Amino acid sequence: MIAKCGKTGAAGRDYVDGKRLARWDGAALLAVAFSIVVGVYAPSVAKGGQYSSSSSSTASKSRGDQKADKKPAETPAEEDVDVGTFYMHKGDYGAAISRFDSAVRRDPKNAKARLMLADCYEKQGNWPEALTAYRDYLREFPDARDDKKIRKKIAELSHKRD
Fold it and tell me: For 18-28, what is the mean pLDDT?
């Protein structure tokens, strides 16, 4: 039997074949997405994209084989960059700046954290801090591949600041 979707009851609940379906609100979806980004939510998927179970062939693997399949743990600075990127895409530049700044303090050689920090300051309209962050990036990485682009940004921001 084919289920009809989109039928709505009097209280605004979705029904399929007379059974009530659960609805996800925006906050619940955001919480799940955030937990995936920070690594709190870890689905039980075995190697090869198949769900693991007690009867699967992965259960017979030795512990040494399972350890070899695991991805190396991220450093705290990399975690800060991941969470900062999440906040940046969400539009919460203050929270993103906090995370990127933390990543730069933990790992001064983290180029991505430095650039994202400068970009957040720029998007926030904080030209002096953006200029400082871009200049710090060039000071730390004088031979960066994107140095011309960064120098151009510094020139543009210098005119905006004045």
Answer: 55
